[in-house]
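Recall the central idea of this unit: under ordinary conditions, the amino acid sequence of a chain determines the structure it adopts. In this exercise we apply that idea directly, starting from the sequence alone.
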Amino acid sequence: MKCWLCVFAGQIKRSLVFFLLSVVTMMLALGCIPKAEVTSRHPAVRVVGSTALLPVARDAAQLMGVTKRAAGVEVFGGGSLTGLQQVAGGWADVALSLVEPPPGEPLYRGLTGKVLGVMPLVLVVHPAVRVDNLSKDDATRIFLGQVKNWAELGGPDIPIVIVNRGKSSGSRQLIKRLVLGGREFTGNARLVNSDFEVRKEVASTPGAIGYLGATYLNGSVKALKYNGIECTIENVANGSYPLYGLARVYTRGKPEGTVQSYSELLLKESFLLEEAKKGLVPLRILKKGPETSQSGVKGR
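Accordingly, the structure predicted from this sequence is:
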């Protein structure tokens, strides 16, 4: 009987330990345990935000001598607004965003932002679409769902398939403002979660059109001119190419420790000059254009 009781007690003990571990894991996932307790076991800087800026964030993390998942810096996407919400709520340390926090909302009052540079956005189509340029009016009618076949714009007889981002995307917010004049996209679109997925979906779908950060351009998709202007550093700098957003880094209050080191690296001139080779336009060469006149250059 004593032996049976010992076995039973051992089973109860193991079950209780498993239960407690499950509860702790769930609390960590839900953010119920204070941030300081979590980071004391895993001292990582958590970076969340614009997927257009993910290559920049990852380059900075690698330059600090860490990988994406190693203790030090963790880099995630999710969209600009998701990054701002995560940092404002205390669940992430650094947000990279193509848009400013929504004005007047108390959640974002503690955020401090600085401008890294300019991220151009490019309209891209499947390579089989024999269209090289879209006017603002053409692009607007496409994204509003008013034009449904490329033949209506002088292209092939192929249905237009819109590849769009979710509402947390800073790129979506910029295209909505700069192209659609604040009007909402048609709901008849394929929604994806990142610039990488936009590129993949457009490249594999005949008739597809989408938009992405210049850092994601490659030969798998066809970049379009906008109002007859090609997306180049020179055209963004002189204001003739209007589709871009100011890339910003946000922290909650004054950063310290590794968060401060990472934030300072993102703003370092030598680092930004290297990133310019991949599509991020240096702020210092930008003349006044549509984005700076609408949003202003704040926090620099």
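The chain has eleven helices and twelve strands.
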